[in-house]
Amino acid sequence: MSDNNIQIFDTTLRDGEQVPGCKLNTEQKVIIAKQLDILGVDVIEAGFPVSSPGDFKSVQAISKIVKNATVCGLTRAVENDIKVAAEALQYATKPRIHTGIGTSDSHIIHKFKSNRETIIERAFAAVKYAKSFVEDVEFYAEDAGRTENEYLARVCEAAIRAGATVLNIPDTTGYCLPSEYGAKIKYLKENVKGIDKAILSCHCHNDLGLATANSIEGVINGARQIECTINGIGERAGNTALEEVVMVLKQHPYLNLDTKINTSMLYGMSQLVSDSMGIYTQPNKAIVGANAFAHSSGIHQDGVIKNRETYEIINPKDVGVTESAIVLTARSGRAALAYRAKNVGYELTKLQLDDVYANFLSFADRKKEINDGDIHQIIETSNVYR
Ligand code: KIV
Ligand code: ZN
User: Fold this and answer.
1) For 5, how many CA atoms within 13 A lie in the half-sphere containing its CB?
2) Which ranges carry the Pyruvate carboxyltransferase domain (predicted)?
């Protein structure tokens, strides 16, 4: 693996599936996992095996069918969780156990009613125990975003001593600013003893709409794995969106950070997850929203018709969208009308266009969006065609 390769850890089926009311059955999870494998993700977090018999069954089924990616199961720093995860992962070609514990004072004092030293001991013991089942163990420091850096470094050192290969630094509550999250990763990279034995991973939540920005700051500052979900789904405001981080890195090649993702599958993947979960994707969602490549104002349409790159930084084909859409509304100009008219078979002269445009505007004031059928009607009922 090159030092510039960013591992994509997909947690759609674990953290993503924690969206209220969006449970997937095993068959649906297996279909999504197969597609994620073809998409080129490095790790598929298939579930939290101890949480329910259904989740155990799903992790086991996914372990059997995934060919390329590592298959991962989540656990708490609890022996039984780890034992059950190891059992669910036994058929995986590349199994990973993802274990960990809360490290912020809020978690230590209120959730565990414990103290910092005991948490370090529990982190060490959990990783050590997971290592007795699999080689690849990832440790998470829950609420690392609000954990003081010096203490977090000590927890990470204990996890590395116990054999962790990946250190996950979650901004569990989506609280950090990008500069703060980037500085945290830099601090750990520079201060954790033994850090050359493990990679740092970004796991950011989107409570302030900063998950993508924070993950990108994380990799710029030395992390080498991003944990994300398709469409950014997840609890509360969701997780980092896979399609967003992948396209940020692709569109900024000077960062010299690559992923193995086949980006032309992104739109299809988004549709599959949204349909399976019954979660509608907002139209203005970056990369995969219905309007991500749609232009409706006259000035923008004129620019895009002359040269797509005037208002598009991504070629829609690169993410699996056939072409940009020129949407006809009352805000559209003559250029857009002529373009759409040509697409449905009318080559209008300048004079004809002036006449048809006047008819179009009165039609568009009555109807929000003009479709191909409307275009025929508008043209055929214009003076030039009577
Ligand atoms: O957000 C979080 O802290 C998590 C961990 C359990 C990895 O999802
Ligand atoms: Zn999370």
Assistant:
1) 10
2) 6-267
Total Cβ atoms within 10 A of residue 83: 17
Which atom of ligand 1 lies closest to the CA of 143? Answer: 3
Separation of CA 169 and ligand 1 centre (Å): 9
Residue 27, helix vs strand vs coil: helix
pTM: 0.95
Ligand in nearest proximity to the CA of 45: 1
| Å from CA of 315 to ligand 2 middle | 31
Contact at 8 Å (CB) between 258 and 247?
Answer: no
Q: Is the CB of 18 under 6 A from ligand 1?
A: no
ipTM value: 0.99
Residues with beta carbon < 5 A to ion ligand 2? 15
Q: How far apart are CA 41 and CA 100, in angstroms?
A: 22
The per-residue pLDDT for range 159-210, each reduced to its tens digit, is 999 999 999 999 999 999 999 999 999 999 999 999 999 999 999 999 999 9
